[in-house]
Amino acid sequence: MYVNPVAPPAVPEERSGFRTSYLADHRQSDLDRALHVFAGLAEDLTPQGAAL
Hints:
This is 8-amino-7-oxononanoate synthase. It comes from Mycobacterium tuberculosis. One of its GO terms (molecular function) is 8-amino-7-oxononanoate synthase activity. Its EC number is 2.3.1.47. The protein is α+β, with helices and mostly antiparallel strands. Helix content is 35%, strand content 19%. It has 1 helix and 2 strands. A two-stranded antiparallel ribbon has the order 1-2.
C-alpha cells in the first residue's frame, strides 16, 4: 500500500488529503487495517467540536 500526501499548491486547501494506491495482492484485512488507521487519524486531526 502506498500513501502520498496531497496538499497546496497541488490542490485547493480544502481538498488536502491523502492519495492511496493498492495492489491486487492486498488482502481484505490489509484494507481494513488501512481504514482503521485513517479513521484514527481523522479523529486525532479533527478539531474538537468540528464535524467529520
